[in-house]
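INTERNAL AUDIT FORM
Audit reference: QA-55
Scope: verify that the stored structure record matches its stored sequence.
Auditor: D.O.
Record contents follow.
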Amino acid sequence: MTNVMLWPDLYREHGHWLPAVNLAKSLQNRTYSVRFMGIPDCQEIVSPYNAEFQPIFSKIYPIGHTVADALEPVGQRWKPHHLMPLVRRELDSVFTAADAPHLLIAGYFVGLEALIVHYLYGIPLMILTTFLRHPQEDPATFARGKLIYMPEQLRYAIMRGATGRDDITLEEFLEPLLEAEELIPCPEDFDFADDDWEHGEKTHYVEPMIARASLSDDPTDVPPALPTPEGKRVIFATSGSQVSDYEDKAKVFFQALIDMMKTEKMEDYHLVLAVGDKLLEFFNVQYGVDESTGSNDLPENVTIEAWVSQLDILKTADVVFMHGGLATIKESIYEGVPIVIFPHGKDQTENALRIVRHGLGVLPDDQRVTPQSLRKLLTEATSNTWIRQKIAGMQALFQLQDQADPPASIPIIEGVVPPTI
């Protein structure tokens, strides 16, 4: 049987991991054997779907690293601490075992790590890019940036250690990433269609990878959807799995939404906030939430959680207030939910422009967030017939592609490493 290893990201970023669960099921349906690998914190994302998971770099990134980052420099998104252990073949037990993978499908942000694996173990690689990148920001360019900005001695130690060559140049080292097939799990119709927005022949828009199912005969163990008061219209709000990267903006955003729920004529609505682990602690303190005593100063029409099953919440939501991450956008479109988008950073501003271009929601005129401005956006998003029509059309396209048999990604993968029984 052909074994495939999925490595969606180094860190616990739900939006990068969950699409890979969908891909894993598609691969299983084509007789591939599929496993995930990642730092221990990532296992909780895929374990509800009964995914086989191989923890790696456990000493460097122990359980709890995502919430309590003990590595210097504090706050830096990506760190090189695992690269030399990887070069020194710390993953031999994974890639030289009897059931070693025949193919590695790695996320865009671990392209450099996947490249090292490719050189050390001779394994073919593919890239899964879970956001809509600029055509010039290909995986090789991103990996090149990591190498360029690390100390020169470390850069050459990585390149020599991975390839066994003292004379290899940076461009030669990156060549396999330029040749790797890249999957973007999103319909091309949602992306920009400008003349300067054209990817190379190795980059493929494929199915959105939204619907998820158990990877074994056992049922999934995803927590049930949060109950909301009967008869209430649900507002869902999130700043995504990388909320800690823009914590201050997210606090202002969430606080304004809570204050909006205190205004007149909001008694028919219920707000569900997914704020992440750190901000849940912050708001629990601010509003005196104590589960042991039942104390809670939050408005009755507000529920705050660290994480929720977005697909379940969106099935009942009237509108979603969000930051602009592609995963939440895709899930909102899939469930036909109008979007109010407040980009916090990164690729989210471009995603907001995509939302407006396609008529799928609304973008504020400025970034000043007040309860009154949010009320206005709520009304516009939920009462605009044009938005409802446009999102219904895009929803039909997303669902059609997500349910295709076989999905668009499969022939591409089979062209790299075909399945065997």
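Auditor finding: record pair retrieved intact. The chain has a mean pLDDT of 93.
Action required: none
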